[in-house]
From TrEMBL:
InterPro entries: NAD(P)-bd_dom_sf, Sc_DH/Rdtase_CS, SDR_fam
Species classification: Bacteria, Bacillati, Actinomycetota, Actinomycetes, Micrococcales
Name used for this protein in its record: SDR family NAD(P)-dependent oxidoreductase
Species per Swiss-Prot/TrEMBL record: Luethyella okanaganae
Keywords for this protein: Oxidoreductase
Any matching Pfam family: adh_short
Amino acid sequence: MSRTVAGATVLVTGAAMGMGRLYAERAVFEGARVLVLWDRDGARLASTVAELGSQSRGRTRIHSYVVDVADLGSIAQAAQKVRTEVGNPDVLINNAGIVRGNSFFWEHDNGEDTRATVQVNTLAPMYITREFLPGMIARPYRAARIVNVASAAGMIAKPRMSVYAASKAGLIGWSDSLRLELEQQDHGNVKVTTVCPSYISTGDGARGSLLAPILTPEHVVERVWRAMLAGKPMLLLPWSVGLSKVLRGVLPLRAWDAIAGRVFGVYSSMDRFTGR
């Protein structure tokens, strides 16, 4: 892919606010031909579309769909509309996600917490990608990109994040396996980028640590965008996430627990989490 998404069709999930909206703004700024926005909040989505439309000044056609990505049927229906009304996307950013934290595992509700978290964070990216990947593969002459926004929590265990960590660990395993499958089958036009950031400043009360400092949404989106265009397989943010992964792999478990908990404060980072 070139240095921008100019002329491409870009689809962003969870696009009405937060980082999803930042990805959408970046696509408009770079002159994407078509921008497709998915979100379950229809009112916020309409507001975002209106503001992006004024920024675009007609250069980018914007299509929005109210989609609950926790619902397989909703995904399938919206995907069919996109293929019919817009065409297959060149860039898919699986950004939508939910966080259920500051609870011990046995305090989670199986439906509202556990099932919903896995449906949105793990299964939805799989379902959505499955809808559009065949179209990407069918055009070997056209560069395509898939971004799966996971989390460092999927690589390093943290107390009070068991369900969330599991959902992101599953996403990481699937996303990087998909990358390898595409490479082995010579579908080199489709590149998959798995993103694993530490905490992002969203006002939810999460507390950064030495190995997992708080990142700004703008910084994360900038780095993800560059990695996506370059087709980078995995992006760990910040660099200390990679160091944590190495230390966790080489140290005895109890030694890692002592360092992560007492020295770096990783194990207490969710103590004040309130959510949004």
